[in-house]
Amino acid sequence: MAATLESSGWWQRWRGRLSARDGSRMLLLLLLLGSGQGPRQVGAGQTFEYLKREHSLSKPYQGVGTSSSSLWNLMGSAMVMTQYIRLTPDMQSKQGALWNRVPCFLRDWELQVHFKIHGQGKKNLHGDGLAIWYTKDRMQPGPVFGNMDKFVGLGVFVDTYPNEEKQQERVFPYISAMVNNGSLSYDHERDGRPTELGGCTAIVRNLHYDTFLVIRYVKRHLTIMMDIDGKHEWRDCIEVPGVRLPRGYYFGTSSITGDLSDNHDVISLKLFELTVERTPEEEKLHRDVFLPSVDNMKLPEMTAPLPPLSGLALFLIVFFSLVFSVFAIVIGIILYNKWQEQSRKRFY
Predict the structure, then answer these.
(1) Is pTM, for the whole model, over 0.85?
(2) CB of 182 within 8 A of CB of 155?
(3) Alpha carbon of residue 280 to chain centroid
(4) 32 or 290, which is more confident?
């Protein structure tokens, strides 16, 4: 069992910030639980995590397919291999995606993504990258790393190609995040800069060791970390307070290639429920929301589209419009005749 825990590298990767006493407690708890399906303490205080298998994916990738009974659905060029799920091959003009069928109603959660990006392209001759999603809509192909534009929810992008030629201060590949209420478009020409919450450089291509990304959402606080140096340690990338995400959205990942290409592989997706203590004041502040938003960041308001008219409603509108038109014509004729009569009387 100890060998299994050591090889998993779980707590070695957990920031490397646990004290010796907390680490000992975690080891004892894991040894008692054996299978690892129960709670794990991830830090001081009352913070425990539970692996949610209905939202997780790992080898041998059972439950992945295109049928309605599958927990995970493939789209586009995505295909299941023995050691990974390939979203796009190293070929031009491909896009693929992998989406969870089960909506997530967790309040606090952590998603760990084990991925690999590699290909034959040389420096700046590869693309375009992959994205991890927590969104209202699923299985919607589009131009934003293989997903729809003007999405509703959270997108985390591992962008491997710089589209904005003039920029010099940003080194690619680059990880960024975006929260959208459906009103914003992702700006490809500027690599998403106008709408990003933050980001960091992440050299992730053609590495000979594992690369990981973790997205943590706790108490309206979004944290994104990465383990891409082969050191089994999390490194901070993005931290944003005041992020409000509704419950009931879907997790997914997607990728796209254009004139340039890469292999974009997902090895595992593991979602953990985090149980966190809240004060009564925090309970009031952390009530459910219905549209994604970020405190101190103004998102354009969404105007609800008018529902389409039914056949009966359209008929009644046309009918009464015709009646009104006929009525107006009749009134106009009557008034015109009276005016003519009065004009004749003046001449007599």
Answers:
(1) no
(2) no
(3) 30
(4) 290
237-259: average pLDDT: 97
Percent of the chain exceeding pLDDT 90 equals: 62
Residue 304 burial class via C-beta count within 10 angstroms: exposed 0-12, middle 13-18, buried 19 and up: exposed
Q: Name the token pair of 260.
A: 């340039």
Spatial contact of 302 and 183, defined as CB atoms under 8 Å apart? yes
Both tokens assigned to 134: 């927590």
Q: How much is the average pLDDT of 200-226?
A: 97
CA 135 from centroid of its chain's CA atoms? 5
Omega prior to 108 cis, within 30 of 0: no
Question: Which has the higher per-residue pLDDT, 3 or 214?
Answer: 214
Residue type, 279: T
Q: Residue 109: helix, strand or coil by DSSP?
A: strand
Tokens of 54: 């209905």
Sign of dihedral through CA atoms 10, 74, 146, 247? negative
CB burial class (10 A; 0-12, 13-18, 19+) of residue 31?
Answer: exposed
Q: Which helix (H) or strand (E) holds 331?
A: helix 311-347
Nearest to 133 by CA among 116, 113, 161, 162: 113
Note the pLDDT of residue 309: 58
pLDDT over 80 (residue 94): yes
pLDDT at 337: 79
Instruction: State residue 42 phi and psi, 5-degree precision.
Output: -115, 5
Query: Which string of DSSP letters, residue by residue, matches 193-241?
Result: GGG-SEEEE---BT-SS-EEEEEEEETTEEEEEEE-SSSS--EEEEEES
Q: Which 3 state secondary structure label does DSSP give 85?
A: strand
Partners of residue 65 on adjacent β-strands? 73
Given a cut of 60, whether residue 134 has pLDDT beyond it is: yes
Tokens representing 203 are 């050299």
Both tokens of residue 255? 């990728």
In this prediction, residues 257-273 reach a mean pLDDT of: 97
